[in-house]
Amino acid sequence: MLAMDGGTPVRAEPLPSPLTAAGRTIGVEEEQAVLRVLRSGMLSGVWGTEVAALTREFAELIGTAHAVACSSGTAALHLAVAAVDPAPGEEIIVPPISDMGTVFPVIAQNAVPVFADVDPATGCLDPAAVQRAITPRTRAIIAVHLFGKPAPVHELRRIADGAGVLLIEDCAQAYLAPVGDRLVGSVGHIGCFSLQQYKHITAGDGGLVTTDDPALARSMRLFADKGWPRDTGERTYLSFALNYRMTELVAAVARAQLRKLPEVVHRRREGARRLADLLTDSPGPALPTDTGDHVYWYLPLLLEGLDAAGLRRYASALTAEGVPSQAGYLARPLYAEPAVRDSAAYGGTGFPTRGVGDYSDGLCPVAEALIERRLVVIPWNENFSDADVDDIATAIGRVHQEVAP
Questions:
Q1: How far apart are CA 397 and CA 387, in angstroms?
Q2: Are the C-beta atoms of residues 372 and 311 closer than 8 Å to each other?
Q3: Domain assignment of residue 344, yes or no
Q4: 3-class secondary-structure state, position 91
Q5: Helix axis angle, 248-279 to 386-403, nearest 10°
Q6: Beta partners for 247?
Q7: Can you tell me the distance from the alpha carbon of 241 to that of 373, in angstroms, rounded to the nearest whole number?
Q8: CA of 264: how far to CAs of 23, 25, 147, 269, in Å?
Q9: How many C-beta atoms surround the C-beta of residue 333 within 10 A?
Q10: Does 330 map to a domain?
């Protein structure tokens, strides 16, 4: 009997979570980094050394010529869109499954988000759908590496180059994910990363942007610092920009976390591999296709034959068994959110999307099917023990037997 129906749950103790110390890799290295900054008396990244060191180290890790630091993953995407510099009403292609931080920077820069459908197995942008969405007004494509699975960025880069537009990679969920002989964040024109609490590594919040283009790097540095070219020594403001600066405290913690990142990714992959082995010989949901490229921010389960109520029951049942789970990842596709569909910006004028963008139901049927009937996600963690993974496998088996058709 399922726990939600009165049975005994598989797990009584909570799994490691990014909201607790048990689910993070924060230790003495981060403590020493914070004390180093505090004792220096310099907490500002403008005059300190930690932010500069972090950007050098991160660019080297990802394999790009430049990295720019900022205050959040959403800020990183805003820097990228600002560097694209769309004119009002121009278009940027985005996926319907992501955090809204992928879309809001588009609207903030007075551009129109155009939603392209996704691959039914990964939830990442479908290149064919992207190709169909390109118009003479398109200025950029934002590809999200969803749940840690790389989007087909080499193909998307070819499409972008053929259309004369920029490719932005949203890598917030996919640190160190390989794409051929490169890493995500180095194939597109710009890569965007997040240091938010839930990500592979964290400094509480913070963002990093990568690029090989010196002009794009300079544009993004200016946008993060009110258009102020501090390298010239002159207090002048070259362009409209905001203050998205990273502090020395954030950078120091991020540098300590960065050194732990390869092991974090390795442990996440090992746990997911163990789960796949445990579920190989029993009926169950489809697990991600992993060709050595998945880095498992979340673990997605793909189901067939359920309606919306059945999908919610499946996720609720897993949660009751002690495995926190979420049906659909999102409540609805991003284009169905009131902030987009009702054009809730700019004083009620509806600018820049009202009467322009198509945000109706049925716009992206593959994404809608994933969210409404096919997808359940489990937050994954590098600190899961073998016993934790065994419990997760047991819970999935129990729930699937009772809930799946």
A1: 15
A2: yes
A3: no
A4: strand
A5: 60
A6: 44
A7: 42
A8: 11, 8, 15, 9
A9: 26
A10: no
Residue 53 in domain: yes
Distance CA 217, CA 202 (A): 23
CA proximity to 105, closest of 123, 80, 124: 80
234 exposed, middle or buried (CB, 10 Å; 0-12, 13-18, 19+)? Answer: exposed
Domain extent for 115: 28-257
Total tally of structural domains belonging to the chain: 1
Count of helix runs (H) and strand runs (E) in the chain: 12, 12
Residue 156 CB partners (closer than 8 Å, separation 6+) = 125, 127, 130, 141, 143, 167, 188
pTM reported for the whole predicted model: 0.97
- Cα separation, 369 vs 187, in Å, equals 29
The DSSP 8-state label assigned to residue 161 in this structure reads H
Long-range contacts of 35-44 (CB under 8 A, 24+ apart): 36/252, 37/248, 37/249, 37/252, 38/249, 40/248, 42/248, 43/247, 43/248, 43/249, 44/245, 44/247, 44/248
Cβ burial of 122 (10 Å; 0-12, 13-18, 19+) is: buried
Of 149, 199, 226, 260, the active-site residue reads: 199
Q: For the chain, how far is it from start to end, CA to CA, in angstroms?
A: 16
Write the burial class of residue 233 (CB in 10 Å: 0-12 exposed, 13-18 middle, 19+ buried): exposed
Domain membership of residue 322 (yes or no) is no
Domain CATH for 212? 3.40.640.10
- Over its C-alpha atoms, the chain yields an Rg (Å, rounded) of 22
What Å distances lie between residue 214 and 107, 210, 232, 326, CA to CA?
25, 10, 16, 41
Whether 199 is a known active-site residue: answer: yes
Question: What does the pLDDT profile of the chain (405 residues) look like in tens digits?
Answer: 999 999 999 999 999 999 999 999 999 999 999 999 999 999 999 999 999 999 999 999 999 999 999 999 999 999 999 999 999 999 999 999 999 999 999 999 999 999 999 999 999 999 999 999 999 999 999 999 999 999 999 999 999 999 999 999 999 999 999 999 999 999 999 999 999 999 999 999 999 999 999 999 999 999 999 999 998 888 999 999 999 999 999 999 999 999 999 999 999 999 999 999 999 988 899 999 888 999 999 999 999 999 999 999 999 999 999 999 999 999 999 999 999 999 888 998 989 998 887 899 999 999 999 999 999 999 999 999 999 999 999 999 999 999 998
Residue matched to tokens 């362009």: 239
In this structure, what is the dihedral angle of CA atoms 61, 62, 67, 69, given to the nearest 10 degrees?
-80
